Amino acid sequence: MNTPRLLLALALLLAPLGASAAPDGAYAAELTARAREARLAGETKWLKLLHYRPKGKGWRSEADGGGFFLAPEGRTDPAAELEADLAAFFAPEPPKGQHPQCRFPARYRWLKERLAFDPARLPERACPDFEAWRGAIDAEAVSVVFASAFLNNPASMYGHTFLRLHRRGGGDALLDYTINFAATPDTSNALMYTLKGLNGSFKGEYSLLPFYMKTQEYGSLEMRDLWDYRLNLTPSQIDDLIRHGWEMGSTHFNYYFFTKNCSYQLLTLLEAADETLDVSSGFFWGVIPGDTVRVLQARPGFVEAPLFRPSFVTEIKARRARQTGDELALATRLGREVTDEDLKRVAFYPKERQALILESANDYLRYRKGYYLQQSTETFTAIHTLLRARGRLGLPPAPAPVERPTPLEAGHDTARAGVGAGVARSGSFTEVAWRPSLHDLSSVDEGYIPDSQLEMGAGRLRIDHADRQLYVERLDIASIVSLSPLDPWVRKPSWKLSTGVDQAKELGCSGAACMYYALNGGMGVSAQSRLLRRELYYVLAEADLGFGPILPQDWRAGAGGTAGVIVDLTARWRVLGEATYIEYAQRSAPRQRLRLTSSVRLTRNTEFRVTLDRRVPDEEAGGMFFYFF
Fold this sequence. Notes:
Mean pLDDT: 91
Radius of gyration: 31 Å
Helix content: 25-40%
Distance between the termini: 82 Å
Number of strands: 22
Low-confidence stretches: 1-21
């Protein structure tokens, strides 16, 4: 036997498996030439994997972290980045950190498929960290989860979306993982938080978290309902999503509240997994979480019917609604203080009713003390006592029968345009209206948080026919109203906050000369009844501040209040009546206003509204047709 030849043959056979094998320069050049010839750098998949967008005559990636690119000019040159990646895939194992094949498994997989890599000439590296990560996720399906709006947090006023990765074989959904994109704030100041979020000063980063942590954050701590929309992705697309999700750990994206936000970046992640998707490029003014769900639903067969996950408060109210007056009174006392006397009273009820009382009492106690792990010894003792009494009944937990609300896609679209006409004391007028987002109190609540208003950039432009002048009748930079009906357990204030340009018609003026800048806020109480279909009554104490040359001394400050009622006559017809009185410290006429609005929802995205408005000394009446898009 020729021993030297045998050793040489073994060395050639094992060389591709060695970590320190020399790169095959000829093969790297061959692959690069084939990639150029096939123009792979211009293919949709590659552009989406690198998050490129057209910029002028070229490209620019939206990824802002340098670790996402291997070529110096990779952020703006897809071809240079592709060739740099190909070269890096031939590199020997680094002394520390991940090999490029492991850092960018989605890119490697796609290029391997498109160029048919020869494993003998381009060894495939072991990626234990990535494989362990992917194995822990073990996803067989993907959902977009929509968390309903939370008006008390500027970053969540429009809701939030994230991806849920369903584990293979099912099991407890709470053990699934989620992919979330969010800003990494460096300030707790509300004003600075808002300003930095508007100009992209925060880093936006992807994170992988267990689903139970998201349900606790949204469903228990912030009391927000969740809607789970399962997507029809193929196994290969799901694997691409997981691989690309791993790649996102090497970069960040500048975070903008209204444009490059959580919902936008999740859409681009889905587009990288399914290159046939084109759902992120259609947003111009901004990206709102609810709109991203709608744009996914617009693709036939892509989104399944949603699964509703009620918040802790929603379940509390559902369980409470099943009790009689005496049972509710007993559960309320136990939720405030667990006493032996009240526990003995529980025993007089049938076992099923005992279980309901004890569960409801525990609900109320947990809500009062906050849904946190750290609690006082007294609170832990009370919870333990209630749970022990419940356990002695030997009955399985009874799920609260929660009435499923209307999903967000049933509501009107986000943006709104309108045209209308009317008559005032000075004569007739014509108006056009616009609103980039989102919803106001006069519109039917279907698909939106009941009794809430969130408007940004809403304006009305008026043409006064008598004076032949064009001016801004109203421009709301922001207008937020949250009316929470009085509840014996869930204590939430009713409040409002608005700022923008208004007309000081109480001074006897109108038109462009009457405009001033206003800031208004208030807090109060709301209550509801069902004398007809449903009525909501509210009273708010208000503070009002204004600036403008029409005002005495160019500014004014005052206080007063607003009282109103919202009546839902039918599922499509709503009437809003409101009275406001503000007294000012300066020598300025008080604001006295009576307003009655009747809105009829014609179709999902059309509405007709009639308004009678008396702002002493002015009076007007008008109608407007709105179209939502």
